[in-house]
Design brief:
30% helix; alpha+beta; two-stranded antiparallel ribbon; 6 helices; 4-stranded antiparallel sheet; 196 residues
């Protein structure tokens, strides 16, 4: 009789209003700001000229993400210039008509668990990465890591399988790497910028 059902970050007492608020990043940010919790500078836009203006007003680097969404979908971090901003802006527009541009803030990423008004646990969210063994290329290292028993699909296990996609290729390119690169033993190869 004391059991509680939990799925990902939701449990049976999570209200639909709370879910709607959390999925609307602009509303969430406004509520946090209203109660004096620091939030990054930025704005909402629907056109690329507005996006560039917001980014220039707050200064690069910036984050580009949909106004509504979850699980880090279509979130682009550490955008350094207007050319890259416009490219990712159009990608985000395929997901949501309204786009948030905000100041990129460096630091560690934590998820906190609050029960009964008290923080009871914290976990650091570390972006997907592999560590080179000096033998296998990056694509092979990802395949090896995906065999890890802790990795599954969705929320079935503590970690999700690493998907090789455009974001992985772009992240590797930022590091001067490709999927075929065999890096020096012990080298950390970052595959994502966010920890979703």
């Amino acid at each position: 009789r004391y059991q509680k059902y939990i799925s990902a970050t939701l449990y049976e007492n999570t209200s639909s209003i709370a879910v709607d608020i959390a999925c609307d990043k602009a509303l969430t940010k406004a509520i946090l700001d209203e109660i004096s919790i620091p939030v990054p500078q930025g704005g909402i836009c629907s056109f690329e000229q507005e996006a560039v203006r917001i980014a220039e007003d707050i200064g690069y680097p910036v984050v580009v993400k949909p106004k509504c969404g979850n699980k880090g979908k279509f979130v682009f971090l550490d955008i350094q210039n207007s050319e890259d901003l416009i490219a990712v802006f159009h990608k985000v527009k395929t997901y949501d008509e309204e786009v948030i541009i905000e100041k990129y803030i460096t630091g560690r990423d934590y998820r906190l668990l609050v029960v009964g008004g008290k923080m009871v646990a914290a976990s650091e969210r570390i972006p997907a990465h592999v560590i080179s063994d000096g033998v296998h290329n990056i694509k092979e290292l990802i395949e090896i890591e995906n065999r890890n028993k802790l990795r599954g699909k969705g929320h079935e296990k503590p970690l999700t399988k690493i998907k090789i996609d455009e974001l992985v290729v772009k992240m590797l390119s930022k590091q001067g790497l490709t999927l075929e690169t065999v890096a020096e033993r012990g080298y950390i190869i970052w595959l994502r910028e966010n920890a979703n």
